[in-house]
Structure formats: structure tokens, C-alpha cells
From TrEMBL:
<dbReference type="Pfam" id="PF05726">
    <property type="entry name" value="Pirin_C"/>
</dbReference>
<protein>
    <recommendedName>
        <fullName>Pirin family protein</fullName>
    </recommendedName>
</protein>
<dbReference type="InterPro" id="IPR003829">
    <property type="entry name" value="Pirin_N_dom"/>
</dbReference>
<dbReference type="InterPro" id="IPR012093">
    <property type="entry name" value="Pirin"/>
</dbReference>
<dbReference type="Pfam" id="PF02678">
    <property type="entry name" value="Pirin"/>
</dbReference>
<dbReference type="InterPro" id="IPR014710">
    <property type="entry name" value="RmlC-like_jellyroll"/>
</dbReference>
<comment type="similarity">
    <text>Belongs to the pirin family.</text>
</comment>
<dbReference type="InterPro" id="IPR008778">
    <property type="entry name" value="Pirin_C_dom"/>
</dbReference>
<dbReference type="InterPro" id="IPR011051">
    <property type="entry name" value="RmlC_Cupin_sf"/>
</dbReference>
<feature type="domain" description="Pirin C-terminal">
    <location>
        <begin position="204"/>
        <end position="307"/>
    </location>
</feature>
<feature type="domain" description="Pirin N-terminal">
    <location>
        <begin position="63"/>
        <end position="138"/>
    </location>
</feature>
């Protein structure tokens, strides 16, 4: 019997399973900055406003001067932005703001509706500005789709990285963004999240297996959707099957699964959770349970833009920031050094 239920190729976005809606991996090798938070490089030949071609190894995305995603709305789900390298500047329609990166995660509940921007300021004018992040969308159950918007910062200082040695002293590291491993619990997600209930067994892990290393993915409860995505390294052995780079597997959730790296290290993302098992009706940035609710989301957004936009531009960056920070809707301020 194999624990592998399905193997699939990674596209853009990656294939996901309930309660997850969406996942993309951004790996941009941005050049030096131009002193105004954009790239010190010509933008000729790029489809500015819709730049996803990876020209020269990086994208502007929807930005025209600074790469990133200027103000846009969401309703009915949550975004989990896991930044391994580089920085993200957040601003939203409720006046909250932040700068985070280099191992931090922002977990934002859109709930009844919020606009936000996610810009990638290129701070260094002397060196290149690499950016690596996952953006993951996790659904909200019907009872929570219209909750008040909220975001939580899972700072790198508070996020456990668990070391798991094998019998040959190779050490796998697991960054626990959601869930728990060997007694190490991730920081709490927002209170209305599907992940806030331990019975839903939500896990988001970044797994690094060294060359020649072996890691046993522990069994979880039964009936979960559990997927592994290989995004770095050429291949990994999962049970008796070989998984190639840019491929994923859906696994039986209550089985222990053996991972074996070959001659080079590998990195994988784990997304796991109990299915919400409710109708999903999605139109762009709105995810609800019915067509009528989608129509209402558009009507509400046209009426008040989910609180308006209190910023002077659609793509604000925090030029005054001295480090990482989060200013929450209630005025609470968190500050961390770069």
C-alpha cells in the first residue's frame, strides 16, 4: 500500500486542496534598487501592469515603478504570505500597515472585505534584492466569511524551526508556520481562521532535507487533505517513488511518509488541513458559497471600496521604516529590527 494518492505538476498557481484555495511561489532575483524602491534596470520589453514573464529572472507583477501588487480587494478567505527572503510592504483600506520579510509570515483574514497592497521595496542600492515567498489562500467556512478583517504577524523570532536528525546524523529542518511538530507549536493564526481550531489539523511547514538526509513525515489524523510540493532540488524519494522538481503529491494523511534526499538538498512545502467541505464560488479576489454572495460582494465593493483607500498612492511603500513593523487596525504597533 502506498501513501501517495496523486502526483501532479506545479503550474502557476499550484494545485491545492480544500481548505486551501491557491498557492504560488515567487522567486525573483531582483537587481539593485534605484533609490526609489524600484529596480535599477530598464523596464523596456515588460508588460507593465501585468508583468509575469520572468524576464531577466524577475517580475514587476502589477507594479509600474515598484514591483508588487498595488491595492486590490479580497472577501471571504485568508491570505498567508510566507517570506523566506526579501521584504514586503503592506498597506490596507483600514489604515493598517507593515513591513515584514526574511523569515516572517503575515496571516490576513479578509473576512467581510478589505483592500490591501503588497509591494516589494528594493532597499539595497549596492547589492541585488532577491525575493522568495509563498502566497497561500486558505478558505473560511460560511460562518466566518463576513467576520471583521484582521491580520496577525508570525515573526521569524517566534516561528519554530525544528531540527530532526536521522540515523546518519543528517539534520532536516522544519519551519512550523501552522500546526505543531515534536512539541513545537506555531504562533497562533487569526482567531476566526479555520486553522485556529486544533481539530482541523491545519499545517503549513517548510521542510529542508539535506543531501543524503532522511525525514519521516509523521502521521496526522485521518480524512485530511495533505499535499507536499517540491520547489528546490532536483528530486526526492517519497516512499518508493521519485518526485521531480516542480511536482507535488497528495498523501494519505494518517500514514507516516518517508522522504529521502539524493545527492543535493531539497526543499518542500507541506499544506495540510481538514476539508471545510462547503460550496466554493470564486470570482477573482472574492470567495463565497453562492453566486448571489459573489454579486453582493461586487455591489458592496462598488459602494464603499471596503473602507476606501487612505494612502496617497495605490502602491505605497514605507520609506520612514527603520526596520520590520506592523501597525494594526486598533493602533497597536509591533517593531522588529531588519
Amino acid at each position: 500500500m502506498t501513501a501517495i494518492l496523486e502526483t501532479f505538476q506545479l503550474g502557476f498557481p499550484w494545485k491545492t486542496f480544500d481548505p486551501f484555495l491557491f498557492c504560488v511561489f515567487h522567486n525573483d532575483r531582483f537587481p539593485k534598487g534605484n533609490g526609489a524602491y524600484g529596480p535599477d534596470a530598464s523596464l523596456a520589453g515588460r508588460n507593465i501592469g501585468q508583468d509575469f514573464a520572468w524576464k531577466d529572472g524577475w517580475n514587476m507583477y502589477h507594479g509600474d515603478k515598484i514591483p508588487g501588487f498595488p491595492g486590490h480587494p479580497h472577501r471571504g478567505f485568508e491570505t498567508i504570505t510566507v517570506v523566506n527572503e526579501g521584504l514586503v510592504d503592506h498597506a490596507d483600506s483600514l489604515g493598517a500597515a507593515g513591513r515584514y520579510g526574511g523569515g516572517d509570515t503575515q496571516w490576513m483574514t479578509a473576512g467581510k472585505g478589505v483592500q490591501h497592497s503588497e509591494m516589494f521595496p528594493l532597499l539595497s542600492t549596492d547589492e541585488n534584492n532577491p525575493l522568495e515567498l509563498f502566497q497561500i489562500w486558505i478558505n473560511l467556512p460560511a460562518k466566518n466569511k463576513m467576520v471583521t478583517p484582521h491580520f496577525a504577524m508570525l515573526w521569524r523570532e517566534d516561528t519554530p524551526v525544528v531540527e530532526v536528525p536521522d540515523s546518519n546524523d543528517h539534520v532536516t529542518t522544519v519551519k512550523v508556520i501552522a500546526g505543531a511538530l515534536k512539541g513545537h507549536q506555531a504562533p497562533p493564526p487569526p482567531p476566526e481562521s479555520w486553522a485556529a481550531d486544533a481539530e482541523n489539523d491545519v499545517a503549513v511547514w517548510h521542510i529542508k532535507v539535506p543531501a543524503g538526509g532522511e525525514f519521516h513525515l509523521p502521521a496526522a489524523s485521518g480524512g485530511l487533505n495533505r499535499a507536499l510540493y517540491l520547489f528546490s532540488g532536483s528530486s526526492v524519494s517519497i516512499e518508493e517513488s521519485e518526485l521531480s522538481i516542480n511536482h507535488g503529491v497528495r498523501l494519505q494523511s494518517d500514514a507516516v511518509v518517508r522522504l529521502q534526499a539524493g545527492n543535493e538538498p531539497v526543499e518542500l512545502l507541506l499544506l495540510q488541513g481538514k476539508p471545510i467541505a462547503e460550496p466554493v464560488v470564486q470570482y477573482g479576489p472574492f470567495v463565497m458559497n453562492s453566486e448571489a454572495e459573489i454579486h453582493q460582494a461586487f455591489a458592496d465593493y462598488r459602494r464603499d471600496q471596503f473602507g476606501g483607500w487612505p494612502w496617497g498612492s495605490g502602491d505605497p511603500v514605507h520609506s520612514e521604516a527603520k526596520g520590520r513593523f506592523a501597525r494594526h487596525i486598533d493602533g497597536r504597533l509591533e517593531e522588529k529590527p531588519l
